[in-house]
Amino acid sequence: MGTSPHFRVGIDLVRVSAVAESLQQFGDRFLQRVFTRSEVAYAMSSPPLAASRLAARFAAKEATRKALRLDGVGWRDIEVVRQPDGACDIQLHGVARAVGGADPLALSMSHEGDHATAIVIADRNHP
Amino acid sequence: MSENAARIRAVLKDHARLNRDAETLDDDSDLYQAGMTSHASVNVMLALEGEFDIEFPDHMLKRSVFESVGAIAAAIGELTEGR
């Protein structure tokens, strides 16, 4: 977690195999409790990459929690939205939006092998 | 509390990926310090919901609610009160 009057940052690292295990153990309960319908639809559009994509999105949600210091907020209130060009952004909903404020958020995710990571920067300079 | 605590430790043993035996934890031992990650805490949450037939409302999805056996037991007590 970073501490600056202008920016806040959060980062998270997740093991893809751990997410694959969650899928195996809890199935739809895990998917529906943590991810939105569109996050699940995108992840499942390529089954071999599903666990990696979900792990990166979980990391993005956790990185956002850290950047905005959110607690007591549902995982689905923090959504990774994929743009047509493939870039991804964070969209806050519900309590997360109310508590997290309107700071523009910058997101970057990556996954390779058994690791997925995400970094989120909240810009507190905006007018 | 002791019966719930034993059931909670069993869930932690299976799902929290701790770096030590859940049976050796005190009720106030910090589970994150014992190796539980945020992702593992989601597995713990889902497993507790199945074990106790409850659902944690979003406002209880706090780090503090899952940070120890005692904190989890208190939350479960709150959610099962009056049953």
Can you characterise this structure?
The complex is a heterodimer of chains A (127) and B (83). By secondary structure, chain A is α+β, with helices and mostly antiparallel strands. Chain A has one domain (7-123): 4'-phosphopantetheinyl transferase domain (Ribosomal Protein L22, Chain A), CATH 3.90.470. In chain A, 41% of the residues lie in helices and 28% in strands. Chain A has helices at 16-26, 28-34, 37-44, 50-68, 94-100, and strands at 7-15, 78-82, 88-92, 105-112, 115-123. In chain A, the strands form two sheets. A three-stranded antiparallel β-sheet of chain A has the order 1-5-4. A two-stranded antiparallel sheet of chain A has the order 2-3. In chain A, strand 4 (105-112) and strand 5 (115-123) form a beta hairpin. Chain A is globular. The two termini of chain A are 23 Å apart. The model of chain A has no long low-confidence stretch (mean pLDDT 93). Chain B is an all-alpha fold. Chain B has one domain (2-80): ACP-like (Non-ribosomal Peptide Synthetase Peptidyl Carrier Protein, Chain A). Helix content of chain B is 49%, strand content 0%. Chain B contains three helices and no strands. Chain B has helices spanning 2-15, 38-52, 69-80. The longest helix of chain B has 15 residues, at 38-52. Chain B is globular and about 35 Å long. Chain B starts with a helix and ends with a helix. Classes of the chains: A alpha+beta (127), B mainly alpha (83).
